[in-house]
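To the team - methionine sulfoxide complex, inputs and output below.
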Amino acid sequence: MKYEALLIKIETAIERDPARAMEETVRLLAAEMPGYSWVGIYVLDGEELVLGPFVGKPSPHTRIPLGRGICGAAATEKATIIVDDVNADPRYLACSLETKSEIVVPILLRGEVLGEIDIDSDRPAAFGDADRVLLEKVAALLAPRMRKARPKQVH
Ligand code: SME
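Output:
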């Protein structure tokens, strides 16, 4: 699906059911973007990122300290990180052997990190500027709807 159409679809779903904003977002991103193999949202709880709703295989990383992983780095830097080849990045915490590339987009509200969108792809270098722009807009839509994380697989 085209980026702009997907953004509108996500916005509509969030407005329709704000209490399920995180679930609907991961569901739509995974369903509409073929390269997005694993899609999840982490919520910041103190010094740890806690896995919330996700689509894909269960991850061993349900709690990530801020100093660890690409997830921890994106939250600390308050900036999107794109990794073209996860196996060449020493920060990478493996979730699946098939994963080749990853994007992590912080969810910020008034400059504070509330959580992040984490997406893995089985394709190398799957994420570019269009993905970054889309996901940063999605993160801005999600920010006012964030709540405590509970790991939950979404189908
Ligand atoms: N790869 C992430 C860990 C989360 S899993 O991909 C679900 C990282 O390096 O922080």
